[in-house]
Amino acid sequence: MAQTTPSGRAPAGQRTAGGQNPWAASGTLFAGVLMLVEGVLGILKGIVGIAKDDVYASVGDYTFKFDVTAWGWIHLIVGIVLAIVGVGILKGMAWARGAGVAIAGLDIVLNFLWLPYTPLWALISIAIGVFIIWALCTDTGNTRVHTSE
User: Fold this and answer.
1) Rounded to whole angstroms, how far apart are CA atoms 50 and 43?
2) Residue of 86, 83, 81, 73 lying closest to 114 (CA atoms)
3) Which of 24, 90, 91, 123 is a Cys-bridge partner for 139, taking CB atoms 3.0 to 4.6 Å apart?
4) CB under 8 Å to 30, separation ≥6 — which residues?
5) What is the distance between the alpha carbons of residues 22 and 11, in angstroms, rounded to a whole number?
6) Do residues 42 and 107 lie in contact, with contact meaning Cβ atoms separated by under 8 Å?
7) Where does the chain have alpha helices with state H?
8) Distance between CA 47 and CA 57 in Å, rounded?
9) pLDDT by residue (tens digit) across 92-126?
10) Is residue 33 a contact partner of residue 64, using CB atoms and an 8 Å limit?
11) Residue 102: CA atoms inside 13 Å, Cβ hemisphere, count?
């Protein structure tokens, strides 16, 4: 049986009797919410990029420079997929975890390429994506019991 603290909770980093890391189990729910929020923000970012070319900073000589309208369509499509997968994670759909890792990874790469346009928000989105991947990969839900004996 897994050891618990006086409050009845498993110590940080230790798996509970059900085999789940409590941080990761809670993180999966939070990852679903973050994916949904990141998706909605991506949709808004895409709409702004499509509607107004002059909202985002002009980038000089940049290897991955696209027209802001093209970036708008990219963010809109990825935002829609992020929101759909986020809802799937919140509903506990089996396909959503693998899709969540894949789309969060794609979102990290796209935000890295988007860095010159909105550096602070791109870095925040990258950090959110890393957390989403960690939470979805560490909450395995298996039944093994780990003790620190």
Assistant:
1) 10
2) 73
3) 24
4) 135
5) 9
6) yes
7) 22-51, 68-90, 94-113, 119-138
8) 16
9) 898 999 999 999 999 999 999 888 888 898 899 99
10) no
11) 7
